[in-house]
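Predict the structure of AMSH-like ubiquitin thioesterase 3.
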Amino acid sequence: MRRPAYSSPSLYSIAMNQKIDVDNRICLRVYYRTADNLLKQANIYREEKNLKDLFVMLLRYSFLVSETIPSHSDYQTLCPKERSLHMKKVHGVLDELETLKPKVSRQMFDPMTPPSSSLKLQPSPPSIMARVQPEALPVSPSKVADPRPGPHKLSEDGLPGSNSYRDLHIPVKIMEDFLKLARENTAKNLETCGILVGPLENSAFRINTLIIPKQTSTSYSCEALNEEEIFDVQAKHSVFPLGWIHTHPTQTCFMSSIDLHTQYAYQIMLPEAIAIVMAPTDTSSPHGIFHLSDPGGVSVIRNCQQRGFHSHEEPEDGTPIYEHCSHVYMNSNLKFDVVDLRRDEQQSTLFNKQPSVIFLRTPAIAEPAPRAIVLTGAAALSTIIGPSLVFFSSSPYV
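Done. Here is the predicted structure for AMSH-like ubiquitin thioesterase 3.
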C-alpha cells in the first residue's frame, strides 16, 4: 500500500512518532475500534479547522490500518467486515494527507502560528494535584518503585513524540462520588471498577461520564460483564474511552503488576488514557492518577509475557515504570453523568451527577478466591482486552 512521502524532515519525524507496534495479545477488534476512534478525532479536528492535529490523527490512522493491523496474527482470519471497510477508508485518508502536507509544513515553520495540542509541552498539574503525590516507597517484592511525577518532554526538534499529551480534564467530584457508589463493596473488602469516558473538544479531553459495568468482585479483583453494554453507551454519547478507575478497599494506593498491564492496554490505544486508584484506607495517599512512563514503562509491559502477580524490571532509560500524570487537570466546572449498568436492564438510566449522589444496589459478588501469589499492597484489578475491549479480572489479555 502506498504511503505519503515526507520531503520535510519535520514531517517525517511526526510520521515516525505515530507508528504503533502490534501486540498479538490485544484482540484484533480492539485495533479496529481504535481506528474508528482515530477517525472520530480527525473529524473533530477537521470541523475545528485544526490542520496540524488533523494531520497527526490521519497519520496515526494510516499507520494503524496499513501497517500495524495487517501484522496482527489474526488479521487474515478475523473481522473481515472491518478489514474491508478500513482498507477502503485508508485510501481516502492517504489522499487527504497528501493535500494537507504542504499546508501543515508551512504552518510548522510560520512563527505566527500557535502550537497545536500535539506540538505543545504540557504544563505542570495544578496545585490540587499536589495532594495526590505520595512519598516514594518501594513496592515489595516488585523491583518497581512507586511513581514519581516528572515533566513530559518533547523531542529535540520540538515535534510531538510518544510522550507528549493532550490535556485531560477530570471533574473534581467524580472520585468522591465513585467511592460512594462503591461504599457497600468497600465495606465488604470487595473491589469496584468503573470506566471513564468523554469527548474531545478544542484539543483537550474532558471526562463527562462514569460507567459502572455489571461486575463480579473479590477483595483483590473485579470482573466486568456484558462488555457490549459499555460500547453501546460510548456509541450513544459519542465519547472516547479515557481511562479507568478502581478501588483498593484495604490496600495502599499504587499500581499492581496486573494494573500495569491493564493500563498498557488502554494507553497504547489512547496515549492520554489514565488509571485512577482509590484507596480509602490509605491515609497518606487515598487516591492517585497514574499512567505508564513512555517510552520506558510502555516498553517494559509490551515485552512482558507474564500474567498474574509478578515483578517488573525498571525501564532501561532509568524512569519509573509508571508515574503521576502531568497532563491532568481537576476541573470544578465540569459536570458528569453516571451510567450504572449494575441495575436491572429496565432501570439502567443516565444520571446527572451534579449535585446529587445516586446510591445503587451492589453488583453480583463472587466468593473471594485464595491468594495464589503474595504481593504486599497489590490490588488485582485488571482489564482483559478480550472479544471487545474492557473486562476487569485477573488476566489482562485473552
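The two ends are 30 Å apart (CA to CA).
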